[in-house]
Structures are given as structure tokens and as C-alpha cells.
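Sample log: Peptidase S1 domain-containing protein.
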Amino acid sequence: RYGHHGRVRSQHRRVGAAATGTSNFVRYASNPILSNSDCLTYWTPIYLGAENICMSGAGGRSPCFGDSGGPLTVSIDAGRSLLVGITSFGAAIGCAAGYPSVFVRVSYYRDWIQQNSDYCNIPNKM
């Protein structure tokens, strides 16, 4: 579960640094997924529960202002990614601060998604 690297998408000119304006190109950042207990060392006293997942802000790489709602994915095999989170929040002092970013954990809401959407379980054999 942990040990995966998460990948986030950004439309800013730079991911994680003084990102000003938007880019014509989609940018990506990849950092390790953290346990919530490791993440809390940065975010205490903010509540982080089972519905959250965190990605390290190492190297000043993280989603930036305006990236909320964007995907956090992990590679599951050659050419395929799995959506594991939706960008929720990061450090108010800026995306290059090195703080972990917090995401909504998609798997926590899987039952609700299946019950309230046109979800179709596609077999792994594609």
C-alpha cells in the first residue's frame, strides 16, 4: 500500500514552485505516498482520517493553488494508472514549502460512488 509514488497533475507553469498563471501544457509531479500518521507530523492539529490520503511534498513538488479537485494516481502496471485521491488541500504558505498534500481517498467513497453513479465494474482483462 505505501511505498507507491503518487502522481498529480497541474495546469500551472511550474509544479510546486512559485506557480504563476496557467500553462498550455499539463505538468506532473511524483512523490511518495505517506501514511496518515507520517502526514500528521506536518498537519497536527488538523484531522486526517481514513477518508484522506497524503503525498509527500519532498523537493517542493506538490499541487498548487487552483489544482484542487485534480487527480492523484498511482501506476498499477505498464501504461495503466489507478485514481486513488482527489486533491483537497496543501500548505497555505505555498506549494514549494515541502509540506505533504492532502487528498480525498477515493476508495473510502467507493460504495457511495457505485450506488450513485452509472458505475460499471470492468474486468481486469482488457
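Observation: Confidence is low (pLDDT under 50) at residues 12-18.
Observation: The helical segments are 36-43, 110-115.
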